[in-house]
Amino acid sequence: MTRRVSVLASSAARLLPLRVKSVLDVGAGTGEMAIALQQYRSSLALSGVDVLVRPNTLIPVQAYDGYHLPLASKSIDAVMLIDVLHHCDDPLQVLQECLRVAREGVLIKDHVANNRLQHLVLAFMDWVGNRAHHIALPNNYWSSQQWQEALRDSGAEIKSRVDNLPLYPAPLLWAFGRRLHNFWWIECKASGSNHE
User: Across-strand partners of 47?
Assistant: First the structure.
């Protein structure tokens, strides 16, 4: 595993409640992240969806339109969104779809850009990491306030988080870390479970 995948998988395993048995990876790509998570949580049943299904994925990945998940409401324990929402044309709609199909909650790793410099740094990082894969780069980075509003409008709240994600070695961590990366476990306020 690359350093990034290893750090994200171990963080996801800590955030994901033990009651979760099935996970849908939205924007699954090759399935590398899901397989890495399964190394920490071997009992998880994993599947994925993506707007561009790649050949030879590591988990079953189904095509979807980027807006409507092809699952019934509350049909899977958890949904995982790893660096996906900022690539979406309508991130709020995608978030709400994920909350619709999840029984327990949604695991989100994404960015926060509270000023122009942070936005530019994230746009550069996305361009470097994704230009070769033909991934859409609308650079929809939300500020802290936009994240709070999106969660409120979706009827969700953060239940747990990992704030320190050492994705890069020093000195890259200073330039490209600095609270730009956030990892949350969120649940619907009305239907979030209180059991472990």
Answer: 24
pTM, two decimals, is 0.86
- Does 168 map to a domain? yes
Q: Is residue 127 part of a domain?
A: yes
Whole-number pLDDT of residue 111: 85
Total domains in the chain come to 1
Give me the domain span that covers residue 137: 3-188
How far apart are the C-alpha atoms of 75 and 100, rounded to whole Å? 9
CA distance 143 to 35: 30
Biggest CA-to-CA distance, the chain: 45
- Comparing CA positions, the residue from 97, 92, 109 lying closest to residue 9 is 109
In tens, the pLDDT along 120-130 reads: 877 777 787 76
Establish if 98 belongs to a structural domain: yes
Q: How many residues does the chain have?
A: 196
